[in-house]
Design brief:
Blueprint (H helix, E strand, L loop, with lengths): L11 E2 L5 E2 L4 H18 L3 E4 H7 L10 E5 L4 H10 L3 E3 L6 E6 L2 E6 L1 E2 L2 E2 L2 H5 L2 E5 L2 E5 L2 H11 L7 H11 L5 H7 L4 H12 L11
Parallel strand pairs: 4-7
Antiparallel strand pairs: 1-2, 3-4, 5-6, 6-7, 8-9, 10-11
Helix pairs in contact: 5-7
Protein name: Nucleotidyltransferase family protein
Pfam families: NTP_transf_5
């Protein structure tokens, strides 16, 4: 999930003279719409997650990574069958918390766990139906989306810069007190929340009544 950058049709020259990656936004959106349409038609509960979910909530970005869908573990076999019947390649990686598919040349991750937290009916029920390039689909609620990003921070994966634009854009829609409670005692999420306070994105904890 990178910060907002302008489109780079066919690539371009970066500020240091290097080549910018090609803008993959439209192909990622086409893959998202195809898989979401199949999941909706089959009646599988799901919610869009990750960078494309942030995009659906209005976070400006040039998409460069895969699409993430949160699904229930018990639906994985049926979803695999439905995708394969539609001609979409599905594979099973060594990790046991997702299955992978490929559509329009883009990777699709269908995830049973968001940062080690199982996807539940309650999580999916809180999803908001939003248009994604004109196709309406369930999208993780802002607090759940930010919670999944905070929970993914670790000593080995701690890209605050990628998540900062999402926090800025969605700050008024997120229950920050809930996220503070859920991440208490976890150094990386707490450090990011402190950074948001220092940047005046959210109110400091001590300012709360």
């Amino acid at each position: 999930m990178g910060p907002a950058v302008g489109p780079a049709v066919g690539g371009g020259v970066g500020p240091a003279g290097g080549s910018l990656p090609p803008d993959r936004t439209q192909s990622i959106l086409e893959a998202t719409k195809q898989v979401a349409g199949l999941l909706k038609a089959a009646g599988h509960p799901f919610a869009l997650a990750g960078s494309v979910a942030a995009y659906a909530h209005g976070v400006p970005a040039s998409l460069q990574h895969d699409t993430d869908f949160a699904i229930l573990r018990e639906d994985a076999e049926a979803i695999t069958r439905d995708l394969e019947n539609a001609g979409i390649q599905v594979r099973f990686p060594p990790e046991d918390w997702l299955i992978k598919a490929r559509s329009h040349g883009e990777e699709i991750d269908l995830i049973f766990e968001l940062a080690r937290h199982p996807v539940t009916h309650d999580l999916l029920d809180r999803a908001q139906t939003l248009p994604v390039d004109s196709v309406r689909m369930p999208v993780l609620a802002p607090t759940d989306l930010m919670g999944s990003l905070l929970a993914a921070f670790s000593e080995h994966h701690c890209d605050f810069g990628a998540v900062l634009p999402i926090a800025r854009t969605l700050r008024e829609k997120i229950d920050w007190d809930l996220l503070r409670r859920e991440n208490e005692g976890h150094p990386m999420p707490e450090a990011f929340l402190y950074l948001l306070e220092r940047l005046n994105v959210i109110e400091p904890r001590e300012a709360k009544p």
